[in-house]
Design goal:
Elements (H helix, E strand, L loop, with lengths): L10 H16 L6 H33 L5 E6 L6 E6 L6 E3 L2 E4 L2 E4 L3 E3 L1
Helix pairs in contact: 1-2
Amino acid sequence: MFEYLNYGALGVFGLFAFILFIANLLNKKEKYTGLYLLLFILIGLVLLDAYNEHTTALKNINDFKNKNITLKCASGGGLYSAADTYRVSLDDGWRLDKNYFIKESFMVRANKCERW
């Protein structure tokens, strides 16, 4: 599950809360219970997102192997480019390696797919 952690999910607010948390540890004059709560909520959200991505990957792997369902998978993309989509199924020559669907030199993560 930890391979699905999105380290950028905390963003600016998480970094700000973490800095305040460390500053509070160094300056123990006052307690910031709200800050502790915010920090634990942010960490919980990151772990919840990783769990969701992990269960999505397991469902897609199960559909691919056992039910031979065709999946539509996205790979790449980002700020300045669009994601490429691939049709993934056993009939098209794709195979499974851990959490990736592989065909020739293409590798697509199993959590980036949906039913066709």
